[in-house]
Amino acid sequence: MSNFVRVAKTTEIADPGRLLLEVEERIVVLLRVGGEYFCLDDVCTHDGGPLSDGRLDDHALACPRHGAKFDIRTGKALTMPATVDTAAHEVKVEGDDILVRMCEPGELARRSAAPVAKTPAAIAPAVSVVEESQNPMPVQSPTMTAISGNQAGGVQSLSEDLVREELKKVIDPELFVNIVDLGLIYNVDLLPANEGKTNCKIDMTMTSPMCPAGPQMIANSKQVLGQLTGMGEVEVKIVLDPPWTPDKMTQEARDQLGIF
Ligand code: FES
User: pTM of the prediction?
Assistant: First the structure.
């Protein structure tokens, strides 16, 4: 087990605030919130993105790249696309010194003891301050609508089941699981259209508001549905309310992602 090392002075970090530090050759982000201190590896386990500029909401720190959230108390991965915990480290305060003990991923969660320390007062620092940031990153709530036409003729009875089955051909490029089993399809409406065709309106959500794969999944959905005989216009609307949560996944998706 590693030992506590002094990483900063309490006067060097605002409340709320954060410091980016190098501790024992690892880059970590030290956070101060309401007089409490937390420390995490500055690494998102989804694709290695830095967490230090992420938005903090209560105890959930969101990765700026694709929006995965981590509990700053334990490092636990809270939301997709991250499925693996990041490392959270033990923090304590002695005098005006902040000390950190480096831990392995999951170690703090297993101990169930909160890795926090209340503010109080110096020791030689064994670390270097890389950068300071106090402003959480805002999260956008995108709304995207796309409509495509399909002039393919023919007579076919389109059903919601058929549409959902067809949408299983659309794969989330971040997770490599189809969008139906991920629980991203909230609603399917089929409406009579001209010339015996059927228009289709889809309400689709994202695993995170900042998911960059949205336009690609919309385009792919329109493409596969547009190939169905009798399909008219296909509209795909992105909805973020209610927000997607992992419990919307089917067991097949959970198996593919290794979530038990
Ligand atoms: S790198 Fe963090 S969510 Fe993708």
Answer: 0.54
